[in-house]
Amino acid sequence: MRVRRCQAIAAPAPAERTPQGKDRWPQQTVLGKTSNRPCWDTTATLPLVFLCTLGRAGAMREEAADLAAIRPGESVLEVGCGTGELTRRARSRAGSAAIVAGIDPSAEMIGVARAKSQRAGLGIDYRVAAIEALPFADASFDVVLSSLMMHHLPEDLKHLGLAEVRRVLKPGGRLLIVDMKRPTSRLALPIVMHGGMTHGVQDLPAVVSGAGFVDVETGDTRFGPLGFVAAHVPA
What we know:
Radius of gyration: 17 Å
Helix content: 25-40%
Order of helices and strands: EEEEHHEHEHEEHEHHEE
CATH class: Alpha Beta
Number of strands: 11
Number of helices: 7
Structural class: alpha/beta
Distance between the termini: 16 Å
Largest sheet: 7 strands, mixed
CATH topology: Rossmann fold
């Protein structure tokens, strides 16, 4: 792949268990909204996607799928898949016989993704799970995708999550991350959205390399606030 040329959020306090056995997270503010969702719950990303792409989220996901260069028959996992918009594009490129899966910590988002997949007969395996504890065997996938998710993670979870991604990728498997760039102006969109960011997609290559990936590349997308990181697992 050719090179084309966010303050990390502190980890939330542990969740409490409700009498019904569900997690209840302490209140916190994400994107200016206070809720009881964990900081990496991708429901918080929806307004961000709209603003970063100026309403062209579909085109951004098409570009992400193109950058991943998914081939027919390849197995694909999206981490932080939300409602599955990118995962469905991965299915269209990998073909109906390929294994395609998506994980997200939000049961609400996975419910929407499953419903859309079932209506379209796509057969995508959506699961409620977190990137730091992927429910898949070693060397299960050819490609792992991440879109506007990594900037939500505190630094320790980035390291844990990328180690898990490497574990589930096959030898020679590929990783593609599309995420927000570190702002260079105090008026930059990421700062407006998050109230201050010191890390961005430009800072991920060191973390990706540290997780054991090779051939790490970075580049721009057609959407100004967004860039990408691509890497391989050694063959």
